[in-house]
Structure formats: C-alpha cells, structure tokens
Specification:
alpha/beta, 10 helices, 25% helix, globular, FAD/NAD(P)-binding domain, 22 strands, Auxin_biosynth/cation_transpt
Length: 418
C-alpha cells in the first residue's frame, strides 16, 4: 500500500458532473482527486459538431453556485459559449484535477476501501465516484461491416461539418436529438440527405407564448423523481424528444423536411454491399412522434386551463406530409447515397470496474447515485434521480446530494466487508 497515494475520495471523470461533486467536497474539506482521461470538459470541447448548441434554454444551466449569468437566459448557448461557461465554473475553485489520466482498474478490498490504478499513478481510496457518463463506445451495428467499403461511414461523434462527407447523398441513421440536428445541418448547407427514422419522440418548441420546456418546468414535470415516475423503465430507456436550439430554437417536424426534399425511410434493418434494408415502420414512427408532440401540447393546454392563464391560442396541429409507400429496400448507388452517418447513440464501458455494483445486463445499480456497496457512487447519468440528472438542470442537486452522502460515509468507522 506504501506505493499508493491515499485519498479519501477518488472521482473518475472531469466533466461537469465530476467537477460539481469536487466543488462540494472542496467546500466540505474532503481530501479528493479528480482523474480525467483527456482534458476537463473534453466531450463538450472535442466531441460536438461545429454548429452544436444547447437544446434546453440557458436558464437551465445551473452548476453549483454558478447559474447562467449571461444576457440571453431564454437562448441556447453554442459550443464555445458552453465551454466558456464550464471553464468559468471550474475557475471559481481549484479542483484537484489530474488530466490525461486513464483509470485502468478499480478493485474493492476486504476492508471496504478501494484500489484505483491509473496511467498517472495508483491510489488507495476510501470512496470512489464514477462520473464518466454513458458515452464511451459509439454504437455501430455489426451489419455495417457488410456495406460496400466505397460507401463512407462515420459516427456522429466524429462529425463536425457537412464537407467531411463525400459528394452525393448522406443517409443519417437515427432520429434522436443528434440525428435530426445533423440532418438539418446538412440540409441547410444544401447537401443531399436522407434520414432513417426510428421511434424517437418529438416535442414542441415555442407553444402558446413560451418555450415548451418553460411550461413543463413550471408544471413540475422536471421535478418528478424516477421512483415516482408512472413508467420508470420507459423513462430510463426511451430516446430524448427531438427539437433544436439552433438560430434561437425551433421544433423539428420531419414531415416538413420530407416535403422540402429530405428522403425519409423507416428504421434500418440490415446492409450488404450496396443494399440497405428498412423496416416498414416509417409512418408508424412519424405518427408516434406526433402523438408525443400532441400529448405535450395537450398537457400544457390542460395546465393553462386549470390555472386560468392568459396565453395565446395554439394553431391547429397538421400533418403536412405522409409517405406514399413503405420502402423496405434500396440500392445505395441508385439513390445516390455515398455515405452513412450513424447517430444511434453510445454504450457505457465499465469493464475496468471490478466492484459488485452492476446488474445482470451490466448496468450500474444505485439509488440517487448511491450504490448498495458502501462508498461507491455514480453521477451524471440520465434519470439518476430526475429528468435533469445528467443535464445542466439537475447536476447541482445531484452532486450536492452525493457529496452529503460521501461526507456521512467518511464519518463512519471502516468495517470489514461482508
């Protein structure tokens, strides 16, 4: 043990989640270190496209004791503004941060403490916080390897601007927030683009005089905790509603893009050579997305009526386009498709954690980030406690709660592990 530096707490991950915990531990005088495999806030700086901006309004940016203080609380910060905000937060205290440091293994000892191995030294810790997020491994399906190599493939994590893609049409796979925004990014540049539409829901942007997220916040939607959610499994597994903050923010109606020349297909079912196969679910997915949209509008309407709020009358909902037929197979060359842009998400990688904190599917087990294994924690994941967990809106509450749990654990005597 003499070759290891002892820390009361080791935090793995130097993004907003890890540094928010560090902020509160610093205030409590808890000895700790933050190990970051790249530079702090790496994902915001390096893994976003050039026109990236927030989807939620700036007022939702609420880092610990450091809320958004700019001139546009109802606007949407672009990438450089986001990193400036994060850097300014880090400058408010002196986090004990070690950058370019990859953690390679964490093991729990019989006395309930932890060994943490890293590329810049090894530690002995009383407690460990995992703040690495869930975006380790970009998802690309196995059948992508069967596609003709002449068709360029790229994952959204590597996309920066339209001119990275070859001349011709790009097929974007995935209609979560990233997929639809990348589609719009290319469409606005006049590039030929098609979209494989999955089952992601969509949301209104401005509705009855306010941003829909403002209404939902006021209605208490974002305060609902996962233990009170009527369908927690669905909440934790569903894709985020798509819309955008670009150019002041607006909703994204895929039917309008189809009307304007964007090709829409159903979910991708397979690929081989120049052949791309789709499920016959395009209209179903569009209808389901609209049902989500209409449901949000109806909930806001009900809130307005119940509270006698004076708000503008909404325009009637209209489906401006429908597919004439379900296309289940195309030849990429015939369609002019020369590239595929994958936007179907990421998988977390916890293979370096040798601690019994995972379920049978490899997902971490916790309550509000606190694991049953004493002294082990997660933060920065979706629905850790509320919808805002993992986002700027909820990170202050989550990190403060975790810091309090850490302080309480630090006051307990070390017991032999069972």
């Amino acid at each position: 043990m003499s070759e290891r530096e002892h820390k009361t707490v080791v935090i793995v991950g130097g993004g907003q989640a890890g540094l928010s915990v560090s902020y509160y531990l610093s205030g409590e005088g808890i000895d700790h270190v933050v190990l970051e495999r790249h530079k702090k806030f790496h994902s915001w700086r390096e893994n976003r496209w050039d026109t990236f901006c927030l989807v939620t309004p700036n007022w939702q940016c609420r880092l610990p004791d450091f809320p958004y203080q700019g001139q546009d609380p109802n606007g949407f910060m672009v990438k450089d503004e986001i990193t400036d905000y994060l850097d300014a937060f880090a400058d408010t205290f002196n986090p004990p941060l070690v950058e370019d440091c990859s953690v390679t293994k964490i093991v729990r000892l019989e006395d309930g403490t932890y060994l943490v191995d890293s590329s810049k030294g090894n530690y002995h810790a009383d407690q460990v916080v995992i703040a690495t997020g869930g975006y380790d491994n970009p998802i690309v399906p196995p059948y992508a390897a069967d596609l003709d190599p002449a068709i360029k493939q790229m994952h959204s994590v590597d996309y920066r601007r339209p001119d990275q893609m070859p001349a011709g049409k790009t097929l974007i796979v995935g209609t979560g927030q990233s997929g639809v925004q990348l589609m719009e990014d290319m469409h606005l540049e006049g590039r030929a683009v098609a979209l494989a539409v999955g089952p992601a829901p969509r949301s209104p942007r401005d509705y009855r005089g306010r941003d829909a997220t403002d209404w939902l916040y006021e209605m208490g939607h974002y305060h609902m905790t996962i233990d009170r959610h009527p369908d927690p499994v669905h909440a934790m597994t569903k894709t985020n509603h798509y819309m955008t903050g670009r150019d002041g923010g607006h909703e994204i109606d895929l039917r309008k893009f189809a009307r304007d020349g964007v090709g829409l297909f159903g979910s991708v079912a397979g690929m081989s050579g120049q052949t791309i196969q789709f499920l016959p679910d395009l209209e179903e997915n569009l209808d389901d997305a609209d049902a989500s949209y209409v449901g949000i509008c109806a909930a806001i309407d009900g809130y307005i009526a119940k509270n006698n709020i004076d708000a503008p009358v909404a325009q009637p909902f209209e489906k401006v386009w429908r597919p004439k037929a379900e296309v289940t197979e195309i030849n990429a060359a015939d369609e002019g498709i020369t590239s595929i842009l994958w936007a179907i998400g990421f998988r977390a990688d916890y293979s370096w954690i040798d601690v019994d904190v995972f379920d049978a599917h490899g997902r971490p087990k916790y309550t509000r980030g606190v694991c049953d294994v004493p002294g082990f924690y997660f933060i920065g994941l979706g629905w850790l406690n509320t919808w805002g967990s993992g986002r700027f809106l909820g990170i202050d509450e989550d990190s403060r709660y975790l810091a309090q749990a850490i302080v309480q654990h630090a006051k307990m005597p070390v017991l032999e592990a069972s």
